[in-house]
Amino acid sequence: MENVKAFKNPLIWRTQLFINNEYVNSVSGKTFEIENPSTEDIICRVQEGDKADVDKAVSAARRAMERNSPWRTMDSADRGKIIHKMADIIERDAAYIASLETMDNGKPFASALGDVGFSVAILRYYAGLCDKIEGKTLAMPNGKFGYTRYEPVGVVAAITPWNFPFLMSTLKVSQILAAGNAFVLKPPEQTPLTSLLYGDVAIEAGVPPGIVNIICGFGPTAGAALTAHKDVNKVAFTGSREVGHIIQKASGESNLKRVTLELGGKSALIIGKSADLEKVVPLAQDGCYVNMGQTCCALTRTFVHEDVYDEFVRLSAEYANESRAKIGDPFQDGIKYGPQVDKVQFDKILDLIESGKKEGAKLECGGGRLNEKGYFLEPTVFSNVTDNMRIAQEEIFGPVQQIMKFSSLEEAIDRANDSDYGLVAAVFTNDLSEALYLSQELEAGQIWVNDFMLMAPNTPFGGYKQSGIGRELGFDGLLSYLEIKTVLVKL
């Protein structure tokens, strides 16, 4: 998406809930504030949904999934055409969507535009898969015939995070629709504005009423009502580990609905002694600070071989200090990093930085607020970090790099794997054998070699251990939104 210009004051024209192809006020009439994290100004109020609104949305989705309904009987190729049309609409409106995301979330416009571009690619990928969801003929004893077929799981509750609002909504929406399901989307209460646009996209693309529903609100009310609802067949959640436990419990206490969870990480990066530090230092830090550090797969635990450790630390501090000039108004050209999403996240990061200093890590640079207005933080680098420190164990979700020293590959592997999380791990080395060996031994759902954020629409994404259950993206991700039926016939 080249030569796309931002709208620096985008019009906010969707603040209502979306149910059964209509934008409506919440049953209660309550609203909540949306803040611009760059300025700390309130930019609008959004309708606040709760259980009553969830019930209406789930009922609409359930009706839309009835046997012989237009969506259930639609040819799979036609379903793919609709999803392609959704991609066309989003591509056409990319500048507006990215501008709204920048104002709502604080990420630089270039980053927001990249998210929209990736969203278009994901939609087109799944549009192309719609007529390729095929079962198989089974080898059976004489006199018998068997085959399998895939069917939609039904009504899906999709609950998305605030760090990549439009992209994460797209990731779930694309798979849900390609598999032939209906859904109720609960976007994050901090950053719901771009996800609300999916109502307009669905109408213009020709999605039948009831298939797309969007309920804004808070986790303990709207989110809890969705995850406990007995007419919801599946929950797809991206967010914190703590909320993941709550969702699993809600599923078990209701109708044992299927659950996929992407719950964050504390991703390890291992840098071998053969690595070219001039190339690796910027990559390592960018992999940690990407999206202002607000990403589940940020490379926050940086393990560096003792032979190059001191030089790596020195260069990292220099690079972080240089990055200060690239933090600011996310609509401004040349800005690389914006603010943290809100005061809650801002204060949490500062608390963890203080804990690092108190527990004996060496603060090489940063560690404080950058501007008087907006939730901007200095790029922060810690050295002499030990594995038992809070900053080495907890998901910080901010621009805080922790650099640890190792002496052998086996030590690095054991320490990297000594975590409750296992979403992503990375290896930076010029030794191919070392890269392949580490990729085999590290306990994570995705391994990156000599770069970061290497995902594509066809690359399954999800974690080991408490980083989640199931996978998103690729055909493997699509399978979690489908039921497999086996048909056996005596001839």
Task: Give an account of the 3D structure.
The chain has 491 residues and is an alpha/beta fold. 39% of the residues lie in helices and 21% in strands. It has 17 helices and 22 strands. The chain has helices at 51-64, 70-73, 76-92, 94-105, 109-129, 165-178, 193-196, 198-205, 219-228, 241-253, 277-289, 309-323, 343-358, 390-393, 409-417, 432-441, 474-479; strands at 17-19, 22-24, 31-36, 41-47, 137-138, 144-152, 155-159, 182-186, 212-214, 234-238, 258-262, 268-271, 301-305, 362-365, 380-383, 400-406, 421-422, 424-428, 446-449, 464-465, 468-469, 482-490. The protein has a seven-stranded mixed beta sheet with strand order 14-15-16-13-12-18-19, sandwiched between helices. A six-stranded mixed beta sheet has the order 9-8-7-10-11-21, with helices on both faces. β5 and β6 (144-152) form a beta hairpin. α3 (76-92) runs antiparallel to α5 (109-129) and α11 (277-289) packs across α12 (309-323). The mean pLDDT is 97.
